[in-house]
């Protein structure tokens, strides 16, 4: 996370407290980390040939946070499902 979800201040490194407004950002940061881990898990599932599991995993990751890599993996999975 580059900016505070409350006041949009730039965040430094791995701080969980916004330096401007003092908001506790630990929950949004944990959600972001979980979404990234799920995206990587979906990639591993694809590599193992588990397309159905990968679909469920990437959909959950997208539900948590829409990131460019997660959207690209979802697009790849959709393309694979069509063929």
Structure description:
The chain is elongated, with a radius of gyration of 15 Å. The longest helix is centred in the middle third of the chain and has 22 residues, at 26-47. The protein is an all-alpha fold and 83 residues long. The chain has a domain at 26-82. It is built from 3 helices and no strands.
Task: Chart the SSEs and their pairings.
Layout: H1 26-47, H2 51-64, H3 68-82
Largest sheet: none
Task: Give the helices and strands as they follow along the chain.
Answer: HHH
Overall average pLDDT: 94
In oligomeric terms, what are we looking at?
single chain
DSSP summary, beta strand count: 0
Indicate the radius of gyration in whole angstroms.
15 Å
Write out key terms for the chains shown.
single chain; 83 residues; mainly alpha; 3 helices
Quick take:
This protein has 83 residues and is mainly alpha-helical. Helix content is 61%, strand content 0%.
